[in-house]
Structures are given as C-alpha cells and as structure tokens.
C-alpha cells in the first residue's frame, strides 16, 4: 500500500488502573483494521500492558469459574492486535522502554514487543504521519 | 492556520483542570484554527444535559466540533439522542481519521 | 529537519521520588540527546518544577536511605542549558503564590492566551 499511514502512540499507564489503557488499545485496533502501520512506545507503567504472566481469574461475586468469567488480560489484547496486523499486512512496532522494564522487573512479554529506548520514540515521531501521547496522571 | 484534535478524557465534576482544556479549545478556535473537541471515557459525562454541559454547548456555538465517543456514552448509559446541545455522538474512528489527517493532537 | 515538538508537562511529582526524575522532563533530555527537536511548556502544577529551593532529600525506609533524591529544578535548568526552550504559564505561577524571583532563570513566560500562538510554531504538541 503506497500511501499507507503510520501512526505512533506513546502510552504510560499500567494495566488495570485507568480507562486510558483500553482506549489506547481501541485506537490501535482501529488503526490496524484500517491497514495502518502502528508504532507504540510503552513508557513507564505501560511496559506491563503486554506482561506475559498476567493470568485470568474466577470471580465469586459473579458466580463464575475462571472459564466462565473469561477475565480480560491486556496481554491477550496486545497479542490479538499483533495477529490482526499480520492478517491485514500491516505492522505494529511496539517498543518497551528498557529502563522502565528493568525498574519494574517486567521482562517477560507476549510475542511482538521489543526492548528499546527514547531514541526509538524520536525515530517513530520523525517517521510517522502523526503521534498521540496518552499520558498517565 | 492549523487543525487541532483535542481529546478530553477527564470530566469537570472531578477535575477543575477540564476548564483549562475547554478554554484552550476556545482560544485556538478564536485564532482561526479548526478545532475538534473529542470527549472520551469520563470526559463524556458532561455531555448529558446538566449545568456542566453548558460549557460544551458554548464551545459548539463558538464553532468547535464537539464529539462524544459512542462507546463511552453507551458504557455510562447516556443516550446518544439526548446529548447536550451542540454535542454529537461519534465513533472513536474519528480520532484515527484526524490523526491520519495530520492534526495536532493533544490528550488531556 | 527534525519535527519541532512542544512537550507540555502538567502533572507534577508523580512518582518522582521513586524515579529520581520527572519522567517527562527526563524523556525530553533523552530524546534531545537522540536528535529530537523538543521544547518544554510547564503548566498547571508542573510550574512548581521551576521553583528554587526544592529539597526531597532525607528519606529513609528502615535503614535504606535514598541517597540520590530528585533535583527537578536542576533538570529543568539542564534542559535550558542544552538549548531547550522552557516556557511557563504565567497565570499558573501566580495562582500558586509563586513570584518570578522564586523561579530558576532562563524560563520563557507565556500567558494562557498566548498558547495558540506558541502551539502554532510547533509541528506537534505532545500533552503529557
């Protein structure tokens, strides 16, 4: 696709803390479905969004076992976004801020993301059509 | 002049700073810029007609496109056909459209 | 030529004691070092980052001392020293009871009404 757009998103929130995580992944989903290439710079707590050891749980309040509850893990949403991009011939380049990973011990991710640094965000900003920073508060 | 996409994820019931973002939208429009204010998450709460929704109607009157994320509205039980004057429901796709268009995009 | 980007910082003292930095000020340093053309606008509570006399030293948890507390005003001054333009919203200074003399030197004051003109001179505005 000659005129394929590339969008960059910088994320900061850890999972399960703020609606921003879901909104960010919704935005990435829409961009991928359009066939856009997407860059993600996961900064600070956002490096835990694709953390591989997230696990679903049962929910006694709902009266459902672990299978019935189908509890969302954002790592699965991230993995599904990579699959969707592959299916549509577009690309997600998801960079995990290395220092943020180290200080959190968040070294295990679902397949797809790679380790990087703020230099990657500079490259992303220069090479993409637009950048949206979704900060934490 | 430029085109701006201002995304408001916070609401004036909890955060006084929302007034800053609404004022920024207004200032940018007064300078002749094209401005969309896109409400998402709790940012859609003032889209339900109330005393706090008047600010959104005023922005619309000032020429700012005021949109509210359809999903965020539905999630909060705010009917899309009963929004404050000047506020329209819109899919989140609008954000991607306007990013792809190259608008200066600010999240609050 | 690199895109000219304005970094707007408004959240203040979010995990700065753990990070030893404000994370947006820090990434601005890092990105500047990687060739980015970035500049900074302090607004809201973040105007306090320019205040002289900040001292976060002396924390200890049991016998574990924090020996390197954040020095955020120095970090902001360091950006100015690297050629980064650091703007600060005048009304936000005044509302917090600060005066110009309370702040580090080299800042560029801007009124809220002047933000559209400021934004117009940047390719992108990243609102952290």
Please outline the helices and strands.
The complex is a heterotrimer of chains A (137), B (108) and C (128).
Chain A: E1 6-11, H1 19-33, E2 37-42, H2 66-69, H3 74-88, E3 92-97, H4 98-104, E4 114-116, H5 118-127, E5 130-134
Parallel strand pairs in A: 1-2, 1-5, 2-3, 3-4
Helix pairs in contact in A: 1-3
Chain B: E1 3-8, H1 18-30, E2 34-39, H2 54-61, E3 65-69, H3 70-75, E4 87-90, H4 93-100, E5 104-107
Parallel strand pairs in B: 1-2, 1-5, 2-3, 3-4
Chain C: E1 4-9, H1 16-19, H2 23-33, E2 37-42, E3 60-61, E4 64-65, H3 72-81, E5 86-89, H4 90-95, E6 108-110, H5 115-120, E7 124-127
Parallel strand pairs in C: 1-2, 1-7, 2-5, 5-6
Antiparallel strand pairs in C: 3-4
Work out the radius of gyration of chain C.
15 Å
Mean pLDDT of chain B: 98
CATH superfamily of chain C: DsrEFH-like
Which consecutive residue ranges of chain B, at least 5 long each, have pLDDT under 50? none
Fold-level CATH name of chain C: Hypothetical Protein Ychn, Chain: A
Description of the molecule:
The complex is a heterotrimer of chains A (137), B (108) and C (128). Chain A has 137 residues and is α/β, with parallel strands linked by helices. Chain A has helices spanning 19-33, 66-69, 74-88, 98-104, 118-127, and strands at residues 6-11, 37-42, 92-97, 114-116, 130-134. Helix content of chain B is 32%, strand content 23%. Chain B has a single domain, classed as Hypothetical Protein Ychn, Chain: A (3-Layer(aba) Sandwich). The radius of gyration of chain B is 13 Å and the shape is globular. Chain B is built from 4 helices and 5 strands, in the order E-H-E-H-E-H-E-H-E. Chain B is an alpha/beta fold. A 5-stranded parallel β-sheet of chain B has the order 4-3-2-1-5, sandwiched between helices. Chain C has a single domain (4-127), classed as DsrEFH-like (Hypothetical Protein Ychn, Chain: A). Helix content of chain C is 29%, strand content 21%. Chain C is built from 5 helices and 7 strands; from the N terminus they run E-H-H-E-E-E-H-E-H-E-H-E. Chain C has helices at 16-19, 23-33, 72-81, 90-95, 115-120, and strands at 4-9, 37-42, 60-61, 64-65, 86-89, 108-110, 124-127. In chain C, the strands form 2 sheets. Chain C has a 5-stranded parallel β-sheet with strand order 6-5-2-1-7. A two-stranded antiparallel sheet of chain C has the order 3-4. Chain C is globular, with a radius of gyration of 15 Å. The model of chain C has no long low-confidence stretch (mean pLDDT 98). The interface between A and B is medium-sized, with 19 and 17 residues.
